[in-house]
Sequence to fold (1132 residues):
Amino acid sequence: MIQIRDIHGGIHPPENKLQSLGEPIRPAGIPAQLILPLSQHIGAPAAPVVSVGDRVLKGQKIAEAKGFVSAPVHAPTSGTVVAIEPRVIPHPSGMSAPCIIINSDGQDEWVNHQGISDYTAVDKNTLISTIREAGIAGMGGAGFPSAVKLSGGQDKPIQTLILNGTECEPYITADDILMRERAGQIIAGAEILRHLIEPQETLIGIEDNKPEAIAAMRAAAEGTGIEIVSFPTKYPSGGEKQLIQILTGKEVPSGGLPSDVGIVCQNIGTAQAIYRAVNHGEPLISRVTTVTGNACGSPRNYEVLLGTPVQYLLDQSAFNASDCIRLIMGGPMMGYTLQDTAVPVVKTTNCILAPTVEELPPPPPAQACIRCGMCAEVCPVSLLPQQMYWFSRAQEHDKLEEHNLFDCIECGACSYACPSHIPLVQYYRASKAEIRQAQQDKIKAERSKERFEARQARIEREAAEKEAKRKARLEAAKARQAEAVKGDSKQDIIQAAIARSQAKKSGDADPAQAAIARAQAARNGTAVEETREEKQQRLEKLLASTTKRLAAAQEKLAQAEGNNDDNIAAFRTAVEKTSAKLAATQKELDELKSSTDGAAPTDDPAAAAIARAQAKRSGQAPAESEQEKTQRITAQIASTEKRLAAAQDKLATAKANGDDKADAFATAVTKTQEKLDALRAELAAITPTTATPATPVEDDPAAQAIARAMAARAESAGMSEREKAEKNIASLQARVEKTAAKLRAAQESGDDNAEILATSLDKMRDKLTAAEQALAALREEEN
Amino acid sequence: MAFLKLSSPHAHGPMSTPRVMRLVLLATLPGIVSLTWFFGFGTLVNILWASLFALAFEALALKLRRRPLAFYLSDCSALVTAFLLAIALPPAAPVWLIAVGIGFAILICKHMYGGMGYNPFNPAMAAYVLLLISFPVDMTNWLAPRGAISVAELPGPIDALLRSLGAASTQFDAVTMATPLDLLKQNDALLLDDLWAQSPQFGQFAGLGWEWANVGFLLGGLYLLYRRVFTWHAPVSMLASLTVIAALFYDGGSSASGGSPLFHLLSGATMFGAFFIVTDPVTSAVSNRGRVFYGAVIGILVYTIRSWGNYPDAVAFAVLLMNFAAPFIDHYTQPRTYGHKPRQNREKS
Ligand code: SF4
Ligand code: SF4
Fold:
């Protein structure tokens, strides 16, 4: 004899089972249309293997299992697939999910099927796959695919096989009547399970409120060694974990499975279905369902084809809709309400409960929790429902988990007992959903964090690679330089360029560039030596780089103009922008210095250089005590000078090329010159101590440039095509030299622009070659 | 047709909070009857005043908090507080004393903390302690019991009413006497037997009248246990611990003796406290294990304060002290959930 243990808590709601036990099981018949959800079980939905329009036979597989935890679906009768579409399925949320819709043809024609006459003779895996292919999923309510439980048990030794015939929920009698009427089939199914699992003991647990069922089962189990255990009726003894505790005293570890403690648990309905599948080759296409409640005139149990609409059952049961405000699928404790009577009966549907208003009145408004502890008293899992209720209201998820919210089996005993009518289970469901959501969000957040970190790492790696490349370039440049000393013609050019660039740096190249170069050189020269405040350094650096960029931009502009390029306008804007920036930076720097150094701008190499440049032009000595305005004007003068120089260059080039825009450039030069003069006058006005002597024309770089350009124009006017080409080649060569020089400089300083420069150098050389070829052609022509 | 969408469970048990409250009120009857029998109509007058004030203050508080009056008044929780305080006060207590006590209990102890279910302290006991500290004379003015005085000297309904209004009639001049617990406390010369013999206030096991009042509350408590209004854990463990500690310190009746276990069980507010105060679900520990601990400490505290403290009766103090400790007890007595290992490190008591 098995020793019965008690579970903690539990309640004794009115059983209400007798109503539906008056009549034997009756086939509900074949409805005109069957709705078969692809997901009637826990796990992945099945995948349809039929198409709309197909004729299917009874028992034919219409959807196959997808994945390990899944179950196939079979046609419960013969007919035509008329649709595969979402329909409202039995679910607490009233949601829709894909279903296969079959219009029955009334012939109920079976597909070819055949049972296994001696299951002991076949391989166990074959047997398990037979069960799996029959689409059998836990029929007690959860719908866990049965084959999974059986295959999972093989790596863990199973001592006890438990068949659950408890049926502790009020009203439901489907298992009771099945045990009464088909005890032999259940025991036969149990034998198959025993054969598969080879447990040391097999127990069938039945509550003591089902004496007929117990008697029938005892009779059927006679001599098999299967033990029928009856125990006191108490809700929720039928919970899998509770039944295990009652029959074995073992507890399934939190988050674990019964197999962790050497137990496999199956519903008795499942056992019967397994028997049908193995011995008769019949897949799971029907089940016993109780239709009861006082709103049903004739409550009873039906053998129902899966997919039968609930309405079809209610129609047979003298259902009185006016009395019924809620329709429940399942029992009054754990069932869920249906909004739609079109939903089908599925593998887990053990009961349709249609109570009258008086029978199950709508819940009264909840009162305050009085902490009476009745909920804790009845909880079969020994939780503290009222604490969880407070935490749930306060959304304290940590506390909820600390209080083992996830061990709650949602049996509803606490809500049942709560004198304040607090819908406790509803709170727990909501909190569980919230926590799950939060966990998912957390996982998501972690994933994106990982992604971000990976990206970060990649960027760093790339930066490191770039750095390495840059170093390599630097090395290569040095090597090339060393090689260049040996000197072939090309390298001569480069060397010349380097020389020029150095010369430029030292400040005695063509006068337009000279001022800038000088300023830059002076700045570069001194800024490093002298320790300045950080800002100043930064500004100086910025100034230096801007100057460089200006030079580059001007050159590009010149080049573009030389080629009559389309981009001239863009380049011009770039030049202007850069020079504006240069001026602004300079101004900022000056201001910074004047504020830090007081009135000693002569200490500042940059300002000094500019001042010198200006002084040279205007023959004016730097003012001893310059005011802010002076500085501003000086800066403006400097930038205007630069712009003037640039404009002059442009003009010169334009003239040299006989460009149409030469006139426009000339105007620009004049205007800039005027502005410069005005600025100088202003400067002179505020620094009267330094009188402004007339500037010697030959010293004025602008005038010089104009003169040069005019000379060039005059020259080109009389030039032949060949001469022009030669001149063009010369200027191209000069530019190649310049660019090569810059490339060199860039390579030396490890500048990122080196590559761009290298490309443009290549292009220029191409152009040069082309021009040389053109020249050669011209010469040939002439000759 | 439209069906309701409702969450399971769909069935509900027969118990409801108003019903629980009414059962508690019902269960106080035997105690009230014996108090009235021995001390006259004073207790009933107390209850009358307390109920009126309680309903008035409750209505006021609900109005201020904009809660539906009928729904909350019908939960009877204010009446329970009124009954409990009225029983604890000396019979025919001054009406202002009752008003102050009920006002404090309902407005401060209950609604200031958020209403029913949110109060950390038992309102009736908190009010009792407040009154005892503020008005010690009025609070210890116990009428003499039947048996110690003649039946004619017991206050009738009118007498009690007048007395509570501070206008004692000429025919009725209330006789007040020290309670047995006072006597025991003040005694330091006589053997208990002699004290017993000398004082008319003593009855068969404990105080005259008191013992029967305690029996009355015990009966009411057993009825509530039978109706499963509360579990046995807190009251039984309180009575058990009180018995044990009284037995430990009972030396057979010397002048320094603290009284027999039976004396303590049937004296003062022991039974009333055990079944009507300690069982107050709101302010006690929530788990059964916690309640065992909670009750046990109250039992010990009751004896400790009775014997060595400043006040002759101690239930109210002991309960309030443990109200403080309830959340702490809850923290350490969370029951072991199914499928979880026992938490050794969190075990306590
Ligand atoms: S049963 Fe209801 S009122 Fe009582 S403690 Fe639990 S939740 Fe609160
Ligand atoms: S629903 Fe959860 S908390 Fe309530 S009694 Fe059942 S298991 Fe316990």
Q: What stands out?
A: Chain A touches chain B through 72 residues (CB under 8 Å).
